[in-house]
Amino acid sequence: MSKIRRITIKPKKYRQVAGNSPGVIELDADALEPLITVFSYSESELISQEIKNSGELDAHLAKHQGLTHWVDIRGLGSMELFEYIGKRFNIHKLVLEDIAGTLQRPKLDEYDGYLFATSRMLYLNDNLEIENEQMSFILMPDILISFQENYQDCLHPVVTRLEGGKGNIRFAGSSYLMYTLMDVIIDNYFGLIYRLGDELDMIEELLYRKPDKSIMYKIQEIKRAMILIRRAAWPERDKINDMIRSDSPLITQDTKTFLKDIYDHCMQVVDLVESYKDVTTTLIDMNLSIISNRMNEIMKVLTIISSIFIPLTFIAGVYGMNFSYTDPETGKVLHHNMPELYAENGYLYTLLAMGLLAAIQVFYFYRKGWFK
Amino acid sequence: MSKIRRITIKPKKYRQVAGNSPGVIELDADALEPLITVFSYSESELISQEIKNSGELDAHLAKHQGLTHWVDIRGLGSMELFEYIGKRFNIHKLVLEDIAGTLQRPKLDEYDGYLFATSRMLYLNDNLEIENEQMSFILMPDILISFQENYQDCLHPVVTRLEGGKGNIRFAGSSYLMYTLMDVIIDNYFGLIYRLGDELDMIEELLYRKPDKSIMYKIQEIKRAMILIRRAAWPERDKINDMIRSDSPLITQDTKTFLKDIYDHCMQVVDLVESYKDVTTTLIDMNLSIISNRMNEIMKVLTIISSIFIPLTFIAGVYGMNFSYTDPETGKVLHHNMPELYAENGYLYTLLAMGLLAAIQVFYFYRKGWFK
Amino acid sequence: MSKIRRITIKPKKYRQVAGNSPGVIELDADALEPLITVFSYSESELISQEIKNSGELDAHLAKHQGLTHWVDIRGLGSMELFEYIGKRFNIHKLVLEDIAGTLQRPKLDEYDGYLFATSRMLYLNDNLEIENEQMSFILMPDILISFQENYQDCLHPVVTRLEGGKGNIRFAGSSYLMYTLMDVIIDNYFGLIYRLGDELDMIEELLYRKPDKSIMYKIQEIKRAMILIRRAAWPERDKINDMIRSDSPLITQDTKTFLKDIYDHCMQVVDLVESYKDVTTTLIDMNLSIISNRMNEIMKVLTIISSIFIPLTFIAGVYGMNFSYTDPETGKVLHHNMPELYAENGYLYTLLAMGLLAAIQVFYFYRKGWFK
Amino acid sequence: MSKIRRITIKPKKYRQVAGNSPGVIELDADALEPLITVFSYSESELISQEIKNSGELDAHLAKHQGLTHWVDIRGLGSMELFEYIGKRFNIHKLVLEDIAGTLQRPKLDEYDGYLFATSRMLYLNDNLEIENEQMSFILMPDILISFQENYQDCLHPVVTRLEGGKGNIRFAGSSYLMYTLMDVIIDNYFGLIYRLGDELDMIEELLYRKPDKSIMYKIQEIKRAMILIRRAAWPERDKINDMIRSDSPLITQDTKTFLKDIYDHCMQVVDLVESYKDVTTTLIDMNLSIISNRMNEIMKVLTIISSIFIPLTFIAGVYGMNFSYTDPETGKVLHHNMPELYAENGYLYTLLAMGLLAAIQVFYFYRKGWFK
Amino acid sequence: MSKIRRITIKPKKYRQVAGNSPGVIELDADALEPLITVFSYSESELISQEIKNSGELDAHLAKHQGLTHWVDIRGLGSMELFEYIGKRFNIHKLVLEDIAGTLQRPKLDEYDGYLFATSRMLYLNDNLEIENEQMSFILMPDILISFQENYQDCLHPVVTRLEGGKGNIRFAGSSYLMYTLMDVIIDNYFGLIYRLGDELDMIEELLYRKPDKSIMYKIQEIKRAMILIRRAAWPERDKINDMIRSDSPLITQDTKTFLKDIYDHCMQVVDLVESYKDVTTTLIDMNLSIISNRMNEIMKVLTIISSIFIPLTFIAGVYGMNFSYTDPETGKVLHHNMPELYAENGYLYTLLAMGLLAAIQVFYFYRKGWFK
Fold this sequence. Notes:
5 copies of one chain form a homopentamer.
Chain A: E1 8-9, E2 35-41, E3 46-51, H1 54-63, E4 68-74, H2 79-88, H3 93-101, E5 107-111, E6 114-124, E7 129-139, E8 143-148, H4 156-164, H5 173-209, H6 215-245, H7 253-318, H8 346-367
Parallel strand pairs in A: 1-7, 4-8
Antiparallel strand pairs in A: 2-3, 2-4, 5-6, 6-7, 7-8
Helix pairs in contact in A: 5-6, 5-7, 6-7, 7-8
């Protein structure tokens, strides 16, 4: 009856992790064909270009040397691309396996000449399902390669900022670019939490007005979503901390100042998630209490009605008994056999007695506060 | 029916955080026009002045060099002011963004030449709503700038102390002034906790006397408020610790002694909040137990009444049956067809039997302790 | 009905903390006039003397130089005394404020020339209320000043030991004296816990025999008391640890050996409190389960009685119907209109059928185990 | 009725641990006769051979010096084998005792010349029981000995990889081989968790559609399995960390890179287990709420039916009373004795009144929302 | 009815701890007269001798110099013995007080020339009560003194091992002997946990088959026992760790290898206890769910019977009403007054209508799944 449009968690395929040979790239069965866009920029210029294959990418990077490059790869379905990247940039095969695996916890691994990081991008798709996508980054001196599973346009705010050229983004190097991408990811966590928080408020509202059976399912779905966000945000926080403490020259001191800022944001995400988890717990308790209260209401109605009318019915039953006033054979009056029935006004007095009994009970229940 | 005036949490607008470009100041849509007051003081004098715009502020600071200045800004709705402060005091744009953002966790950031700190000011407004306001501080050698979101006069105790000139406040420098402001903030936490604690006591009282359906909502609101305070106090504690451990020359050794004191207070806030959270949990359990007990009461009434009268009604029903004593056609006595009805005193004996049955049941229920 | 004499927590006035100016002593409105006793002792002698005012104290200390002094102050209601102590022993005003404040967490502060420590003294007063009193210590080379809020004689065991002169107490200096006072405080925690543990055992006993509505309140009061003890014991433990690790010459190496011993005791207090908290949780669960079980009992009685007699009453009702055997106008026999009523032994067979039906139901309920 | 094929935990025999003399090997009563397979390999060749006894093993190792050996022992029922290994490789008797004990937590012990590690292998056997088997490793420069309790072929993926010769496995030494075995173990945890996660989804589905009594047992079994996995994975994680931090030359730098990878996997296992434990808690709450809701449903039916018909039955009872209209002896009309019975249309009006009463109650219950 | 032989916790007398003067030995009121056995051994010989008093002990130790001695004291009721030990071996009085106190947490204290350690020995006595006894050790170069409260023969396995002379025990010195005693203590924890685990399994079995009211008490007793074991095992673990890290020459390097082994065992005890505590929580939830389910069952029976027969009884009641067909005075037919009663087959049709109504309801309840 109640129509909250319900946020659900998109089920994740997970089976392919188990049994892999380490260091061997295995593509997901449903991985998408990669869409590659390269943004090459300096303070003064910004070239954004769609790339078709690794050869074209190679050519583009060679041609625009001296610029900073962001290679944005959406879709992980090309083994050839992985092999090209592995060879061209000398990337460890464990890194490539992790990118293709898509079920990594957020982490930072430092390798010789580059850094590898993963994050979980959480966002609502058009069916109000929470997508849990892996985003991977390879950070090199002038190049940042980012990998997404879907074609979804989550990183659009960064593109806008690049195009606008406001702030540091155009001259602060590849580590700053990576920071802005991570910033967008964490902002997405906030958006999701606020969205879920609104749902919790609606549910609380509903509990007040009109609790129904489906509420537990809604609360539980939100709790699961909170658990999901926490599972992404906790290790993300550790990852950012690792980046701040890292002494790799790839992360500039200036970027670290900004990283401290999103570290605080990430802490806030975790704080909020914990608070909302506490809230869901209380909502579950409230729901139980409301159900029990309704039971009490129901029982009160039953008890009041039954307690009043059952004794009255008994009295009526008594005077409905057929004890004979006279012996059917002799016609003799059988003394004490229900003389009330033959008394003048017996009926009236009986009705009055019944009314009195009912009134006493009503008063008793009123005193117990059962009519409130 | 029961009229506890209920403390609620004022809903926070939160949406504007997500999607910001880092280091770009974005004013809240409903930010207030700033009210600026400057208190310039030394041991011997105190000048307090309302300031209209940044130019006047500039002039005032220039004129009263040598004094310690507290620039108290209430309302964050002027981009021009942020820009002036950024330029005049050489403040990092991330700092200005955080001041305008109003959703920061309490934290301390050390910058070259100044310290930046935020706190959460929690207080009850006139509608008994808990306001959750951000208070930001920029601490410079002789200047402390404080930023509040609203015009609310929370910091009045500090003004009074400045005017009174008692204690260290007039000669202990800007870091001591900042400490007194933080002290007021933490004192506010205490006030709020005690207020909520009183409500909890009232609720417990109510649970004893007259539990009703709304109690769960009240408990839950208090639990949420406790969660809110904890979310403010935990990072506040860390912030104070950071200040104590800081080797910045901006925080004098003397101030640190006092900071240790509010560190202890902050720990106490956290302790109290945890204790009260435990208490709310128990109250929820008590409420559930009370509801169940009331159900038992109701069921007992129903069961006693039903169990006594239903069998009696059955007996009355039996003697209300119309089995014929004589065959209607032949007039022959049909043996065994309800001779009781025609026995002398049959009615009396039946009533006595009914009374006995009822007495046995009453005794049985009494023995089971159902009348207590 | 059930008469457990109930331990309650004496409500603490708390309001005065908020809004104080730091470093300004504010006496509690209901603070008592100080009772001062000085115990001056060496290995060979013990002088104990009641002191009336600060002047007398001054004289006494001057006269008995060379001895170790324990200045035992009970009652904090004299501003003049605080000022004297502050000036005479050069005590920081934050310390004096903390002593007067009476709501400190246990802590140790090291100052130049003296140590300041607070503890929470918990004890049962004559109304079986748990008093939560602050005890403060100023430890100087040959003088220990202790402050209590009430005149209560909690520290009597130490006086007895001083008088007896057994053990180290008379020659081990002021830090050892302070240790013995702390030892008494922690022993008091134990006493209180064991007392509460006994109540828990009684409550469990009661749950077995005769659960009633008030049990939840009793359990909750004990849980609150446990929370109170834990809130005192956790920081006490930290305080003792700080004393052990302190490199202040005021705490002798020998005393530290003994402090390790009460550190272990304090850990044990915390362990016991946590265990008992677990036990209260289980008791709450048991109580809920017992209430539900009783509900089941009640429902069984209702269901058995109703299920047996309602169908029988129906049968009686059927044969109480007035369907006419003959047409009132024509006198014609209306076939099928209740010939049972005119059958010979119809009544008897009906009673037998009713008995059979009841027997079947009783058997059914017996098989379901409802009579156990 | 509902047929989820249920995963259970195979009960572990545990009694033999207690009372052992330390360092004395005691075989399990039901330990299997060892099956020994040796895989000796270098980059260019792979010899795999079934071994019958320790003499044959000795000969094999002597013959194939220069190769890397994996001695895979399945079944721990031969004291002679333990003694041979102890003597031949100079293994500490505590290590041999731990291998035979089969109830160790995962751990790493470094000894002179070799490393000893244990893991818990969890897998589903053919009866859908979770087997909890101990796997032990002795790592020496060119030899890895692995011990399993059962003949189960869990390590088959490693054998396949060895035979395929892909990746590092054939030339990266014994520590890399040990890593691949641990990788298989952790992959098994994932498989098990996903399997249990699927069951949880099915149970949730069932809760929606058709909750029944057995659900609690199913939830509890899954919770127990989660606890089991966590108990294996937490110390496994510590073990891997010990290996990464170890400075033993037995673990190559290259292997450590890979160990970091399974460290992350192990963290993920722990994360997932915690999340699923949270989910089971919610499912238990949901189940309770559903049961209560059903109770409400049942009570509503009872209350509606009873509340409507009991008052009506009372009215019928009233007009079934036998108050006499005339005195049986004098024939005089007894005024007020039930004149309604002799009024024209009295019956009709009574039925209408009954219908009206029923309609009012139906309306009342409808308004309370009891028909939804 | 159900006969699980129930394990209970033997209540501990605890009052005597509070109020002791530190360093003053106070014997328990019910302390037993000491039984002293000395085992003096070297690799080649083992002399075991009952000792009557401290003089005899002195003589024995003097006579058998060069051997390693284990002085096994059971019963702590002799002040003279404590004084002898204190003087003979130069033991600190705090140590002696702790030995006599019998309520210590497990701990290790290092003193000059000896180590002092306590453990909690938990075992089942013949009444299936869990005894919680203190075991204390004083470890000196060639002497180990162990103290037990009771005469119980818990340490018998060590005596057997000494007599057998297998393993290291006869030549590895006093620290190894102490290790073997601690090993026996921890093995006892395991035995107890497994015993309690078996009870939990029985309880779960019982919950399936035949839940009754006493189950909550049984679960709670086991939970309490688990809490007790945890309270012993956690500090025991810390103690073992302290011993491993200790640089005292009293603990040989070889013994430390073995201590690492029981450290792992102790961790396992803690793991198991936590797991079983989780299990008890689930059992409590299951029990609540089962009680609620039974309530549902009971309510269903009541509702089905009542809902079917109450309306039928009403119908019977209607046709039992005495509305008159003719005016008693005029004999005129009162139209509409219950003509059904005089219709041919009116009775039959009424019965059929009743049957139909009942069938509809049965069908309705069947559809709702209430008959399963």
